[in-house]
C-alpha cells in the first residue's frame, strides 16, 4: 500500500476534559488536537506514543436559572457547575463526573418552605403521553427539610448553609439568604423492573427523529397543603465513556510503525469475514457473469467516533473483465446505516412493533490492494482496501429498555455503467458498535488516497419511519 498515512488525533483525556473539546454533547468533538507523529521512513524508529497537548487546569462554568417574584427580583436560584470545555450552551457531564451546583434562596419576607429537594432525571421521550416516556434515572437529594431545624443564614458564614439544632425561636419560616451546595452522581448502570441492566445513553435530540433522550436537574421548594410549590428545571447533557477492546497484535504493530495494514490473507486474526455472497449481472450488455463477494471488517467490531473503520473486500469470479470492472473504487458502494428504534409499552406486553428511523452515511472510499489475484483452481481474485471515516459527533451505540441506536455496515449492489446487477437489495449487512473513546495503545491511521475528503454525515434514508417487528420485547 503506497498511499500516504495520517495519524488520527487523540480523544480527550477524561481525567482532563479540557484537551481539544469545544462544544456541547450534541456537537461534542471527541477528537482532541495532538501533534502529528514524525513522518515514517523505512528503517527509522518511530515512537508509538504521540506527543500530548499540554493539559490545562479545568475551568468550571456556571449556568444559573432563577425564579422571580412579582417585582422581578430573584428569590430562588439554581446554579449548575460544569466543565467549561464541554459546556458551551448547556452544562454537560461525562460518565463518572458528578452533577454539581448550588441552590440559593433570597427571602425578603418569612416563607413557610418545608423542604428543598434537588433531582437529576434521565428520560427517553417519544411523545407527550406518559406511556411514551420512560424515566430511567431519578436521583434525589434533600438539601433541607423542616425537620432539620433552622438553617444557618448564609450571610453570616462562608456562603454555605449548615443545619443547626432547632432553635426555640424558630417559627418554621425561612427569611434571609441561604445557600445549599449539592453533588449527585448519575449511575453508570440502570436496572429495569425486568431485571435487565442498561447503561444510561448519551443525550439525543435530533430534528427528524421523534424520540429523544433528555437529562434534567430540578429543585423543588415545597410548602405543604394548600400552598403553591415552586420548581426550577434545567436541561443538562450527558456523555457515557465507552471504549473498544484492545487492538489485535499485528494491527497495533502496524499503527505503531505507521506501516500499511496487513490484509486478511496474511493477518486472518485481525479481520472478521462476513458470510460470502454470490450475485449475478450482465457485463458490457453481452454476457451474464457470476461473482462471489466477501467483506472483511477490522477487529474488534467496535469503532471510536471521530476515528475510522478499515475494511477489505474480496471479489472472485471466472470472468477477469468482470472483476476489473467491479473492483474499480467508484463501483463499490458501502455505507454506515444507523437505526434508531423505540417502542414503549408496559413491560410484559407481547406487542413487538417498533417505530424506526433509518439513516445512511456517505459512501466509504476504496483503493486497490496488492493481495493475491488467483486461487489454486484458477478462479480470479481481486482485493480492494477501504475506509469509512466517522464524524466526531456520531452518537454512540446504546440501548435503554426498548430504545436503541444501532449501527450496521451495508454493502449495496455494485454501480458501474458496464455492469447491471440482478440484485436490488443490499448484498451484505453487518452490525458494529460505535463508542466514545479509544482503546489503550496507538491511534488508528488513515490510509485513504490523497485528496479524499471524508464526509460521513448521517443523511436521511428513504423510509424514515417504518413500522417493523424488531423483537425487542
Record keyword descriptors for this entry.
eight-stranded mixed sheet, Arrestin-like N-terminal domain-containing protein, mainly beta, 3% helix, Immunoglobulin-like, 2 helices, 473 residues, elongated, Arrestin-like_C, 41% strand
Number of helices: 2
Tell me what portion of residues adopts beta-strand conformation.
Answer: 35-45%
- CATH level 1 class label of the largest domain: Mainly Beta
The residue fraction in helices comes out at: under 10%
SS elements, strand count: 28
Major pleated sheet: 8 strands, mixed
Structural class comes to: mainly beta
Assigned CATH architecture of the largest domain: Sandwich
Q: What is the N-to-C order of secondary-structure elements (H for helix, E for strand)? A: EEEEEEEEEEEEHEEEEEHEEEEEEEEEEE
Q: Rough shape?
A: elongated
Give the low-pLDDT segments. Answer: 9-53, 458-473
Could you tell me the CATH topology label of the largest domain.
Immunoglobulin-like
Number of domains: 2
Secondary structure layout plus pairing:
Elements: E1 6-7, E2 60-68, E3 74-83, E4 92-94, E5 99-111, E6 115-125, E7 133-145, E8 174-184, E9 190-191, E10 197-198, E11 212-222, E12 230-239, H1 249-257, E13 271-273, E14 277-283, E15 287-298, E16 302-304, E17 308-317, H2 320-326, E18 334-342, E19 353-360, E20 365-368, E21 380-389, E22 398-400, E23 403-411, E24 419-421, E25 428-435, E26 445-446, E27 459-460, E28 466-469
Parallel strand pairs: 4-12, 16-25
Antiparallel strand pairs: 1-26, 2-3, 3-5, 5-8, 6-7, 6-11, 9-10, 11-12, 13-15, 14-15, 14-24, 15-17, 17-21, 18-19, 18-23, 19-27, 19-28, 20-21, 22-23, 23-25
Amino acid at each position: 500500500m503506497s498511499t500516504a498515512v495520517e495519524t488520527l488525533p487523540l480523544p480527550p483525556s477524561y481525567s482532563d476534559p479540557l484537551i481539544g473539546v469545544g462544544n456541547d454533547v450534541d456537537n461534542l468533538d471527541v477528537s482532541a488536537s495532538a501533534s502529528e507523529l514524525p513522518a515514517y521512513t523505512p528503517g527509522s524508529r518511530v515512537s508509538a506514543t504521540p506527543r500530548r497537548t499540554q493539559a490545562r487546569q479545568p475551568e468550571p462554568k456556571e449556568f444559573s436559572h432563577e425564579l422571580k417574584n412579582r417585582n422581578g427580583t430573584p428569590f430562588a436560584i439554581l446554579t449548575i457547575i460544569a466543565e467549561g470545555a464541554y459546556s458551551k450552551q448547556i452544562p454537560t457531564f461525562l460518565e463518572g463526573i458528578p452533577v454539581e451546583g448550588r441552590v440559593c434562596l433570597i427571602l425578603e419576607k418569612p416563607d413557610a418552605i418545608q423542604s428543598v429537594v434537588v433531582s437529576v432525571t434521565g428520560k427517553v421521550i417519544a411523545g407527550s403521553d406518559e406511556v411514551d416516556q420512560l424515566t430511567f434515572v431519578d436521583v434525589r437529594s434533600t438539601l433541607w427539610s423542616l425537620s432539620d431545624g433552622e438553617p444557618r443564614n448564609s450571610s453570616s458564614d462562608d456562603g454555605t448553609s449548615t443545619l443547626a439544632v432547632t432553635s426555640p425561636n424558630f417559627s418554621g419560616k425561612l427569611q434571609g439568604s441561604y445557600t445549599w451546595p449539592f453533588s449527585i452522581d448519575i449511575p453508570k448502570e440502570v436496572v429495569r423492573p425486568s431485571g435487565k441492566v442498561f447503561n444510561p445513553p448519551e443525550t439525543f435530540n435530533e430534528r427528524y427523529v421523534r424520540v429523544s433522550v433528555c437529562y434534567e436537574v430540578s429543585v423543588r421548594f415545597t410548602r405543604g397543603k394548600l400552598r403553591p410549590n415552586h420548581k426550577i428545571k434545567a436541561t443538562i447533557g450527558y456523555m457515557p465513556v465507552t471504549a473498544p477492546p484492545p487492538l489485535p497484535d499485528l494491527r497495533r504493530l502496524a499503527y505503531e510503525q505507521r506501516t500499511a495494514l496487513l490484509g486478511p490473507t496474511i493477518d486472518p486474526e485481525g479481520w472478521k469475514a462476513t458470510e460470502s455472497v454470490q450475485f449475478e449481472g450482465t457485463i458490457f450488455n453481452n454476457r451474464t457473469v457470476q461473482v462471489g463477494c466477501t467483506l472483511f471488517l477490522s477487529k474488534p467490531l467496535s469503532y471510536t467516533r471521530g476515528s475510522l473503520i478499515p475494511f477489505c473486500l474480496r471479489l472472485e469470479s471466472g470472468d477477469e473483465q468482470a472483476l476489473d470492472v467491479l473492483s474499480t473504487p467508484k463501483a463499490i458502494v458501502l455505507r454506515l446505516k444507523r437505526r434508531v428504534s423505540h417502542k414503549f409499552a408496559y413491560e410484559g406486553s407481547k406487542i413487538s412493533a417498533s417505530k424506526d428511523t433509518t439513516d445512511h452515511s456517505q459512501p466509504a472510499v476504496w483503493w486497490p490492494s496488492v493481495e493475491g489475484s488467483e486461487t489454486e483452481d484458477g478462479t480470479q481474485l481481486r482485493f480492494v482496501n477501504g475506509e469509512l471515516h466517522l464524524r466526531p459527533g456520531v452518537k454512540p451505540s446504546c440501548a435503554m429498555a426498548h430504545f436503541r441506536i444501532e449501527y450496521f455496515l451495508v454493502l449495496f449492489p455494485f454501480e458501474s455503467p458496464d455492469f447491471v446487477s440482478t440484485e436490488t437489495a443490499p448484498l451484505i449487512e453487518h452490525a458494529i458498535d460505535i463508542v466514545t473513546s479509544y482503546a489503550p495503545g496507538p491511534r488508528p491511521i488513515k490510509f485513504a488516497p490523497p485528496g479524499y475528503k471524508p464526509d460521513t454525515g448521517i443523511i436521511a434514508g428513504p423510509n424514515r419511519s417504518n413500522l417493523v417487528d424488531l423483537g425487542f420485547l
